[in-house]
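Figure 2 data, in text form.
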Amino acid sequence: MSAAGERIIRSDACIREGARWLAAREVRFGEALRQTGPLPLRLRKDGFESLLDAIVSQQLSVAAADSIWKKLKAARLTEPHRIAAAGEEELRACGLSRPKIRYARALAEARIDYAALREMASEAVIGRLTEVAGIGRWTAEIYAMFSLGRADVFAPGDLALQEAARMLFALPERPAERALREMAEAWAPWRAVAARILWAYYRVAKEREGIR
């Protein structure tokens, strides 16, 4: 548990516990897990670099985001003071668009107390992060899930989660963010594990479609 009294995912054992809980309460999750196999832990370090990486990745393919991130790392532009001091041309040379340069600088200037976030309730974390230009609720939820290990955070604005829910639950159409958020309430206190199941199921389903 965190200082805020929330369950924290720290290991594969936590993922397995959450997956068993979900499969026992929703037969479709059990069906999905039989297809996906063990779920990934997907934890990453918290802090400025993790949030900057999330900003870089927004609305880009994995390959494009990885390419930009490698250039930023090579240029040693993944720390707040270096982002703040860098010229626009230097950042653009790494592949950042003008809006993302603005967002990266806003993050560098935000003076977020990353250690304090670890002790805050998830909604408070999301509220603090979304005060920064360029960080929307999706980015903040992803940070809470994977950098802080929050077990009961979900990201219903994620298109892959929406599409996976449509396929797994045989819905007539892809659920909107609000509808999926309401649907996910039944998966508390393991909503972050439910998200992992849906993402894994999405990949399996898409690979299966590719074979056909």
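Caption note: The first helix runs from residue 12 to 25.
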